[in-house]
Amino acid sequence: MNSRWSVVALVGAFAVAGCASDLPATPGPGGTSESAKAKSEFFDPAEFERQLRFRTAKATGLDSQDGTAKPWEQMLEPQLVDTAKYAKPGGGYHLCFSNASVDNPWRQVGFKTMKEEVKLHPEITKFTVLDAEAKDDKQISDIQSLASQGCHALIVSPNTTATLTPAVEAACATGVPVIVFDRGVKTGCPVTFIHPIGGFAFGADGAEFLKEKVQPGGKVLALRILPGVDVLEQRWAAANEIFSGSQVKVVGVEFTNGDAAKTKSIVNEYIQREGKIDGVWMDAGATAVAAVEAFQDAGAAIPPFVGEDQQDFLRMWADEKMTAVAPTYPTYQWRTPVIAALRVLGGKQVPKEWVLPQPKVTQDTLKDFIKQDMPPLHYAMCGCEGMPGYPAPWK
Amino acid sequence: MRARPRLADGTGPVLVVLLILLVGLAFAGPAYAEPGGYLALLKRAAPLVVLAVGQYFVIVSGGFDLSVGSLVTAEVVVAARLVNGDDANTGWVIALLLGCGILVGLVNGLITTKLLVPSFIVTLGMLLVLDGAVFLWSGGAPRGALSPSFRLIGRGSVDVPVLGQLPWSVIVLLVVVAAAVWFMRSGTGRTLLAVGDNENVVRLAGGRVDRLRLLAFVLSGLLASVAAILLAGFAGVSAQVGEGLEFRAITAVVLGGVLLGGGRGSVVAAAAGALSLEALFSLLNLLGVSGALESAVQGVIIIAAVAYAAHGAGLWRVLRPHRPVPDTA
């Protein structure tokens, strides 16, 4: 084989692999500033303030049953809207769900929880789900195809915000009540938009913890999955805002691509480079265990850590007696759309924007969330422990 | 036939590059003042070196193996599911993984040699097939967990006098490289090199070209499995573990001065190429260069190394601009 052709072939391979392994995330503007001082374009001061306020605000329960409501039935500062025009008494409901994807553990735990929630309600006789496999174009055609299947209510978890907006608008126009959750859309036409407090609160929970636990001048390493995804950018924007107003020194902001080996190498290199790392902030906990292991393998003390509510991290936290916090993006939010759909079909009020509480796992509550028999990637904040089928479907 | 020098063609430059990088590391990071720092580097580099050795066999015989990255991912995900956190399962799962690697290599090799599909296309297809299969089976989220004994090989170390803690993965690395050197010095290894140079000559001389090619793919698959076991041990389960590894391995081999298209290059140089690549990334990180530059650096290395390999020392003559005409304006 001629060597020149090999070069051509290799270049071709790069192009093909680039297409084949595209991440399902919104492509970002790229080249995000590494400087801890620079304000991100994703930083929205008003929304930041609002989310920080929500963290301590008192949530109200449905139909004002305050004390007893479960977190997924609670709402923060709700503006209730009337849904009488959608009311269809009598049950026998056909519920439809256009899902963005089930390609990560968070969505898998959530989707299982949603399916179990559907089983709790005998008035739902049919539950149709189409999985868009993280592709915008597939989700657009999924929503169109659901429109012709006689759904009584349509639940949408959009893959990306802007691209799915017209599809959701078209679905609203058919007169079916549309319920959006997780990521939003840029239209007010859905009956309700359900989501936990948000990325700013998530990022701030971790950053405030480190600000408190790391001594002034301490070195903090920030690990992010990838740039350009709005939910993740918000988490970092909030953390950046809090770090820049504190005495801790952010010595590095690195992208891990959610890869454990890469995470471990990065942390290992930072321990070698800085001599000592006094705190680790992460925008998502998927590789938190690998990051902790890097300290163990280097023979260094494990500094204060920000993780997430996955079982493997929670167990490590307890076993190693770490100083840590786990902000959550609760998977119990997958229960709420089903509850909302039934309320709408029953003609009961729902909030226009249904903001769910977003608790964090702390030292004090850690032991309540560790479930030794659950898989390592199971998310603890699933609100699923009390469901009849638990724990089999989540294993 | 000319006498073979002790260091094969093209080994010199990469060893110089590696030496410069290692010295650079010693100046850039305090951790590299003692053997521990270099051992940590070797430990991080071990999976890539093993992969690069496997890739070397295929490239030197005139092919490509693009399937190794997705093979690594597939094996790590499968291992987690089958081991399921139980030490009792470690042994047979490791054997199964090695078997799977050999099987994938066999399929790649048979399609390339019997159906005469270019290896580039076969292994690209295999990459996509494995990617798709993993996604279908796991839904994108790996399940199960690895047992402590499974992770020992990639993560643990053994006490050795003088050096202190010697990671198991470094031992595996040394064994693989030594075996590869021994193999390439044997008759079969030399014929494999000759296949990449001119397969017709080998065929006319009575060599079994197809068998040798097949062997190269099988070795590549087997070593990809070893790399998978090391990586899984190093960092645990992840569905992204193998992403881009095939290009890293090819970059490493090319950096080692191995000619794409086959027929020239030494396995030591390929291994040194992999180590250099890892050392370079560590150095860039120590100097505070953003990790985002990694793929750009990798691209530049591939292009520069291939251009150098194609023109050798005459490269400067090709690149030298024509003597400019004195501008009087």
From TrEMBL, chain A:
Stored SUPFAM superfamilies: Periplasmic binding protein-like I
Keyword check for Signal: yes
Keyword flag Coiled coil: no
Pfam families from the UniProt entry: Peripla_BP_4
Keyword annotations of the record: Signal
Signal sequence segment: 1-20
Source species, domain of life: Bacteria
InterPro entries in alphabetical order: Peripla_BP_I (IPR028082), SBP_2_dom (IPR025997)
Subcellular location: Cell envelope
Domain Periplasmic binding protein: 97-348
Family, per entry: Belongs to the bacterial solute-binding protein 2 family.
Protein name per Swiss-Prot or TrEMBL: Periplasmic binding protein domain-containing protein
Automatic annotation (TrEMBL), chain B:
Annotated InterPro entries: ABC_transp_permease (IPR001851)
Keyword Transmembrane carried by entry: yes
Membrane disposition: Multi-pass membrane protein
Regions that span the bilayer: 92-111, 117-139, 160-183, 214-237, 295-316
Keyword annotations of the record: Cell inner membrane, Cell membrane, Membrane, Transmembrane, Transmembrane helix, Transport
Pfam family, one: BPD_transp_2
UniProt KW Glycoprotein keyword: no
Major location (coarse): membrane
Compartment(s): Cell membrane
Name of the protein described by the UniProt record: Autoinducer 2 import system permease protein LsrD
Source lineage: Bacteria, Bacillati, Actinomycetota, Actinomycetes, Pseudonocardiales
